[in-house]
Amino acid sequence: MAKLLLYLTLATSLIPLFSVAFSPENPTDRRVLVLVDDFAIKSSHSLYFGSLTSRGFQLEFKLADDPNIGLQRYGQYLYDALVLFCPSVERFGGSIDVASIVDFVDSGHDLIVAADSNASDLIREVATECGVDFDEDPAAMVIDHINYAVSNFDGDHTLIASDDFIKADAPVLFQGIGHSLNPANSLVLKVLSASSSAYSANPKSKLSNPPSLTGSAISLVSVVQARNNARILITGSLSMFSNRFFRSGVQKAGSSIKHEKSGNEQFLTEISKWVFHERGHLKAVNVRHHKVGESDEPAIYRINDDLEYSVEIYEWSGTSWEPYVSDDVQVQFYMMSPYVLKTLSTDQKGHYSAEFKVPDVYGVFQFKVEYQRLGYTSLSLSKQIPVRPYRHNEYERFLPAAYPYYGSAFSMMAGFFIFTIVHLYSK
Amino acid sequence: MAAAAKAGEATLRHAFGNVLSFFILLLIGVLAFSIRLFSVIKYESVIHEFDPYFNYRVTQFLTKNGIYDFWNWFDDRTWYPLGRVIGGTVYPGLTLTAGTIWWLLNSLNIPLSVETVCVFTAPIFSAFASWATYLLTKEVKGAGAGLTAAALLAMVPSYISRSVAGSYDNEAVAIFALIITFYLYIKTLNTGSLFYATLNAIAYFYMVCSWGGYTFIINLIPMHVLLCIVTGRYSSRLYIAYAPLVVLGTLLAALVPVVGFNAVMTSEHFASFLVFIILHVVALVYYIKGILSPKMFKVAVTLVVSVGLVVCCAVIAILVALVASSPTKGWSGRSLSLLDPTYASKYIPIIASVSEHQPPTWPSYFMDINVLAFLVPAGIIACFLPLSDASSFVVLYIVTSVYFSGVMVRLMLVFAPAACIMSGIALSQAFDVFTRSIKFQLLRILGFSEADAGDGSSANVVPENDAVKVDKSEETIKERPSRKNKKKEKEQMEKAQAEKTSAKSKTEKRLLVLPMELSVIGLLLLVFMGAFYVVHCVWAAAEAYSAPSIVLTSYTHEGLHVFDDFREAYAWLRHNTEVDDKVASWWDYGYQTTAMANRTVIVDNNTWNNTHIATVGTAMSSPEKAAWEIFNSLDVKYVLVVFGGLVGYPSDDINKFLWMVRIGGGVFPHIKEPDYLRDGQYRIDSQATPTMLNCLMYKLSYYRFVETDGKGFDRVRRTEIGKKYFKLTHFEEVRQS
Predict the structure, then answer these.
(1) What ipTM was reported for this prediction?
(2) Which residues form the Oligosaccharyl transferase STT3 N-terminal domain (chain B) (predicted)?
(3) Which of A74, A384, B296, B696 is most buried, taking the most CB atoms under 10 A from its CB?
(4) Which of A364, A354, A279, A264 is nearest to A319 (CA)?
(5) Which residue of chain B is at minimal alpha-carbon distance from A390?
(6) What CATH class has B561-720?
């Protein structure tokens, strides 16, 4: 697999040599295409890009309207992830369009979309495909008159200091457009939501109507994990990735604590680790099942067999596979509905196993492990295994209940024999 | 001296006749075999249709894995995810037969493929069946009728339709088993031999192994026994013919896994036990009658009858209560639809949906048995002249089978042998009368001695009915002087009787003589009719019944077109999909998909689980999203749809669709048949209902159909389709063939 890809990448010679693609064994993305509006972003956001490069990513910067860009060539994807830092692009160059981006994600690749106020329709469309809707007013920004960050250049309270996320050390600075989540989409999650006092409006103009997006319904940063484990990050602020926000200190309005450094760097580094599959990526290997007391995997089970099912689950730490420890992994023995549902016990080293009895029903069953935990890639294992009824010679012989019948049969035979003798020779 | 010479001449003539019969039978066998080869010559040596593919697959499994694995075969590739216990749900007779043939040939170092053996099993067994018909008819009306019946059966279209080369189905061997069972029953009835009774039970066992139609035997024979008892024909021969059959036959039948306890528990077998009891009561009565004086007997009868009536009433009441407590009255659906022809269409759409379970149309009688339809009444009359145990049996056989064939097309197959036997009897009797008349006239013209002629004709042409008990034969000989018994041990007595009655017979014979011209014309007409029958049969074998139905041909002005789309599609599935992928289709194509494409199917032609079929029917009649959900829950990756609107192939899925709706609606009430009908009419044009136009079957069938001719003209429904441009949202097209 890797060799084949290597050959292709050499042939295309677009990517540096020795690039290693996303693979099941090494799930972290490697080749990232960054589309920008202009190359100034490369330097103004260099801290963020630097953190990516230092973690081993190969970034390729292209102008969004570069006519030579393309995501795939000869049916092979050239990149493992796509970063759209081009909020104002109206039309992508080359062969990229919304549909091709959706296909890119559908084939399991990751995506980061950073919009801004005045985001183009194209970026909005990409976001809509991912299940989030940016505020329809192009000039709208998220405004918060209570939780704004104290600064000397922002008077309209659009620079928001949000600490509404897990394990917040320092608030995250955000300046840009807000979005709402499509309630029908269960895959998209708010990571950073605005406070209840926030609203989305054009800061330059007077507010005539009540704003359409208010309070914590506004999401600032959202993530999606698709069913194929592709991960998407969507944010309404490109500037939150910038060096300026990374470096600046932050003081939340009404708070006396002044943080030397905003939380942006830590927040965005960790979240891009997640998006690029450096974290929260599980793999299940060595799915095994066998009868209790045996070690070979049978092609078919018999009803009422005792069997043992085991699987090893590992978590990718970014550099190596570590055992995943949890006590809530369950296995189903499934035929249209689960006949057996059992929690797997773990040895704390990634090995999960369970013993159970095959139900008294024959048919084609599946061992199913459906493990979906927030933040982790979903594990969906299914292994088909037929269950047969007893063979003709596997039934119990000489049932106690049948002894009257045996008795009657043999007494009948004996009686007939005696009767025959008497009948034939008595005269 | 003269008598001895005459006897010698008669023996010689007999020997000559036997050799001739042997060669005629051989030729009949060859004819029966070769008339069924049209399909191989016109197409190729393939298995036909649907069910044969399953049988073929089972046979392959048997030859590969042996009989024990076959017996215990749990097939996980059909009825996903339920699976099917093949060993316990299949009639193993056919498979075992073909497997044995294959094994025999292979151990003789004749390396034939399993497929070849399967293809030619049916023709081989139709040769056997015609020989069995010969034996049966010979028991009833003598060798002449036997040969005629065998020749008729060898080429009766009804039987050809189920036994052409490649039609590897249960019926192929079951008809042989049916006839041989009847023959052995008649033989036992005529001889009273326990040996034949045992053979009869074994033949019955073979029939039970082969076909569910064995219930016909186990009901017909009791009916006949009852008839004999009622008409006062009870004899120990009848007892020997019947009692061992019930006891041994039931025990043997219970050994077949698919029958098992059904052999004693279902109502289909009830008649045999009832008659078994009646027979014993009658036997007891006859025995008591023999040992008691008439007066004592009368007293005993009144005593027993009064006590017996009370007991009988109680038992019957219990039985009725037991039977009535089960919803189907203990009968299986197929049997119930036999008794009440409207039953299936009312309650079980899955039985009614099969075309071979429909009642036949009148033309199909002419198509399937042709001139035999006219000869049968004559045969019935001939059977009454005189009525023996054997001839009453065939009369009963034809009467019941006519009824059953009127209920289900498929049972035409049971009717065909009866029709052949009757027509054989009729033809042979007619020929007999005509030739004898001609012979008499000729001899008179040529001035031969009349005595010789009379004797010759009575010895040679008149059918012999052997194995009639001595006491009885004396009675019958009074009625029919020409009857002669062939049994060796009785030869002496016969000679005496023949001499005694020959004078009488001559006088009576002369009265039966028909005018010369009339006889000649009659003969010519009969020969003409026979010729017509032969022509029709050859036509039917060559044109009507030889198509394997997996390869279609059509003639247009450009010439012959061959559509091999079925096999192409299955080959695509076999080569392009994963081994464990599930293919959903309507159940008609289940057997073929498992056999030819080797992919797991959801439902197949063994329609044992109505709910499962209804699930697929519901999916087919639901809109795409709902259908996708159903199919996804069944792990289906591919959906196979047969559409014939482009080439004009009428038995495609759109034409079967209403049955899917009905069967689906029978289990899932949200599918309602009226939703798919516009004013009670099934249509797919612009007048069709929105439900119809949005259901999965419509969409899959007509997806991109408009691209073929720009209008979307369906050549089967002869109309333009209602919805032409649409996209599939939850499915995608992978292959069109």
Answers:
(1) 0.76
(2) 19-422
(3) B696
(4) A279
(5) B72
(6) alpha beta
